[in-house]
Write a structure and sequence with these properties.
Layout (H helix, E strand, L loop, with lengths): L1 H10 L8 H14 L12 E4 L4 E4 L24 H15 L4 E5 L5 H10 L19 H6 L17 E5 L1
Parallel strand pairs: 3-4
Antiparallel strand pairs: 1-2
Organism: Oncorhynchus mykiss
Keywords: Signal
GO biological process, one term: microtubule-based movement
């Protein structure tokens, strides 16, 4: 298991910042080193299945027979894809581990939707969510004025984790 988690961590740390061509090169290199990856897709399509102690496809986490809520506004519908499942998995792991998260990418790729999905899935008795919309006009004093005061002696401060979403 340690070897699987090491390779998964390597893929989603050092090897995550490459372009599509780099992913193919890394995929070939790691497959030569670690022969347990399934032949289908690339190494970026798999996570560690702790129950079976092997690689499992993010595609297996997709909801079968998903239907959009009929009463939901169009702009709030998020169609589950392998990408959204993968990034929800990764961001949720980082947030619950209390690591800061920075998601970047082109406009319209689902960064905000992934962040909202992860934050909505957190236990509200343990986590407090504060959303601050940023632009070039937002000053620091306006940003910090929205932060809640946690200095109540009877209520412990909830765990802290920052998620930042930026567009290129």
């Amino acid at each position: 298991m340690v070897e699987l988690w090491f390779i998964f961590s390597l893929i989603w740390s050092i090897c995550a910042s490459v372009d599509e061509g780099g992913r193919k090169t890394i995929d070939n290199f790691l497959r030569e080193m670690e022969g347990t990856f399934p032949n289908k897709d690339t190494i970026y399509e798999y996570y560690v299945d702790t129950k079976n102690k092997t690689w499992a496809s993010f595609e297996d986490k997709l909801l079968k027979g998903w239907r959009y809520p009929a009463n939901a506004p169009f702009y709030k519908i998020m169609v589950p894809t392998v990408d959204t499942v993968r990034y929800n998995f990764l961001v949720r792991a980082l947030v619950t581990g209390q690591y800061p998260v920075l998601m970047t990418g082109p406009v319209g790729t689902g960064k905000t939707s992934v962040a909202q999905s992860v934050l909505q899935g957190l236990d509200s008795s343990k986590w407090a969510v504060l959303t601050v919309n940023m632009s070039s006009q937002v000053r620091q004093d306006r940003q910090t004025s929205k932060q809640p005061s946690w200095n109540l002696p009877s209520i412990p401060k909830p765990p802290s984790c920052d998620i930042s979403v930026t567009s290129q």
